[in-house]
Amino acid sequence: MPFTVLCIDYSIDWTPILTKLKLSDGSTIRVEQAEWKDISLVSSTQKGIVVHLKAAENPWPFTRQKEDRTLTQIDLVLMRNFPTDLHGKDYRSIVMGFMIARIPAVNSFHSVFMCMNRILLQAEMTSATERANDLLKESAAQAPQLRAVSIHYFPNTSPTENHLKRPDESISFPAVIKVGNTHAGYGKMRVFDRCDEDDLRSIIALTNEYCTVEPLVEYEYEYRIQKIGEHVRCFRRNNTKRGKGDHGDWKNNWGNLAFENMDTEPHHRVWIEECAKIFGGLDICALDVFHCRDGEVAIELNDTACGLMFEHQDEDIGHMRDLIVDQYLLGASAIGPTLTNIERGSSSGGCGQLRMLMSGTPEAETDELTADVPTRAVLWRFPQARRASIISQTVCRVRGSGCMANSTVTMDEMMARMDQITVGVDMAYTLLSGALAGFAMLEGGIVTRDSTKNIMFHSLADTLVGAVVYYIVGYGVGYGVGDEPNGFIGTVNLFGFWKANDTDHIKWLFSFAFAAVATTIVSGATAERIKTLGYMIYVVVANVLLYPIIAHWMWSTTGWISPFNRLSEKGPIASLGAIDFAGDGAVHLVGAVPSFVGALLLGYRGQYTRDKERYPPRFYKDANHKWQINEFAGNNDITATVGAMLLWVGWYGFNCGSTQAIVSQTHIVGRIAVNTTLSAAAGGIAGSIVGMFVDKTRQFNLSDGINGMLVGLVAITGGCSVVEPYGAIVIGVVGAIICKFVSVGMLKARIDDPVDAVAVHGGGGAWGLLAIGFFATKEYVAEVYNRPAAVDDWGVFYGGSGRQLGVQLLSIVVITGWCALIALIVFGAIKLVDDFRERPLFTFRDESSFEIMAFGAEKKDNARAAFVDPSILMSSRPRGNDIPLTTMSLTQHSHSPDTTPQPTITLHSHNMPQTRSTGITGSPILRSGEGAASGESDSDTDSSV
Q: Does residue 430 form part of some domain?
């Protein structure tokens, strides 16, 4: 999730300045820009803030802010305009709204609110100059004295004859009279004598503002000390005009005058640092000083709205940009006022230390501190995508004798400890999620017994080979974003030469779990047809060109169809970008499309074997030249069921873990878990019922229930964070229906998919992506993806325009096209090589190929005729019009005189009358030979297994 910065500025376009930044966690900065007059808000002390921004009227710089929009998340605010305008309107109510919601800012909203009172600001500046003089005096530094200009304040709203009578004795002429909060040189007038003052008095009487009087200082030149974070520089005005009274351009703005650089002396830094400590700290400020014959006079202190000088404007903007990044990394502060028992350290502005001095009896001291210091909070995002946390900056209540007595604790230390705890919890959560995502025992229970070693070794190869390849190349291809963003492919962090920060290794591990799952889907679909060497070739390609490429498109901050790229300069290809929260497209469709291509090109099991008795094919023609299906027994129904249930548990790692945080995303994680559960349950129920009707039986089938549950999990993966629970139920039900019909269609097309990978992951993944365009809610999309209110990119069932549905369909098309192209190249090359070889290198084709199913794993049993347990034969026998009652006899014989006699199981089939019964069937019972496969036997038959 991008880090959102609201810039209040009407002169500088901050979007290209900030959006190109790459933060330490890889996330980007999203910029929203507006003027004070365009902002309205509703804030809460507990639930944050909702800010509505009107469309910009000014064509520049708000070229990207052409529509009204609503923000529900603001991580930082940069104020470059003072919250008053030329016509006297102030926006202190807006400032208070941000303060109530405790939104961090540069400078803090508290300091901005206090600086709006120019009289109070002038008084604080006077105190700061006195402290600076004391510091310089103690250090024995040779520095001129700095004094603040004297101010006379008159709070009366209607000045009368007596209004200025008593101060007359202390007011000297010429003088400057200011009415209220002067703005940009307006609202003040120079008077040279009593007559001028009398003329002005009648005008002041018509206002409802206070007024101030200060002497018009005679000076030799004027200069400004500017501070942005730790950077301090000095400028001198060099076109000062001399006029009446020889006082120069006393009224003009700094931005309208020429200037020249001047050396920054140590005492300049001391002056500005002391002034920057007022009101809890100013990260950006500027002090205007007159150089006079008798010393230096501080005239005015400006806060974050101070103007930038043209020659150094780009450099100063860079300093502000770096300051924003520092605020993001260290925690954007909203430090409150200087209060009792709280001392601000010497660090700059919001990044300084806040020391809580404790002494004496702990109980009494903490009670006193708690009474003096109100509860304040700091809102910032830790360096981890899609995570926000509110850390309370409250005085710790210390209970117990002697605890922390006479000790000093810095707020930086407290924040660092809380940061460590929060990041630690989130890392552990992500690690756990990544581990859960690897549970995939299902395939081992579904394939035939003799190919179990082969399929298990392929799953092992996914991890062994995939981990190395994904670390060296894949991670950079998927998530490497360089200085020149590429929407198609990552271009940095390649070949293992990437420097990881605190969270990169966790992100790599979690994303690798997704890559491994996307890869292993193909192993089940191509079981018993591809050798380990050929499969390893596919693993390498999948971890470089399949999952990483699609993940970059869908999830990278620069991906051409990624929702996280919506606010970049170019943006995604359409509207919001394709929503795929946890991998309907990037994982499941990426695995399903190559599964289909591989199963199609490699043929069905037993297609190329000559010994049809020992290695019966999956599909064959009967005596009437009609295609029939050989039902192959699975290895173990119990293993398959347990694997499916473990996979369900692991799915919480997929979906919930995709938040990559749990401390601050509890409500989203909870919604994801509920939706995942309901979709899986609804899919399992629907799959069992639909399977019974499609197969025209009155029995529930275990495989249909498992597939329905799995497709429910797959279908909800992409939209688990943006749909309602009842929407998840509908998605699961529809997914199960699609899965069953895709499975039947694959059989009719004679495409052999032993684990129904295409039906489950392909049908479920495509439907899951499409369903988001129907069921995504406005509220949840805005929460998860920070969608502006003016962009109606949510589900059409909730009032969406249909644009999101269109972009979801586009994502299905492009993912399918890319994966099909790569799979055609890989499996086409494998097939082509083996077509011209007498002994196949990559695929299982002839009898000799089946002798070794994996490296060192010799094939000892019949590939089709797995061990038959008599109890299974009796309990799971099929029911129908003619039920074959099977008995068994055991004989021993030898194929040759040199071999040990081998036991042979002979099955004797006897037709029995139909028995009306309804039950649950397991995997189909092994049937060898064409008659058994087609179900056409009308007489007793014997078949050796």
A: no
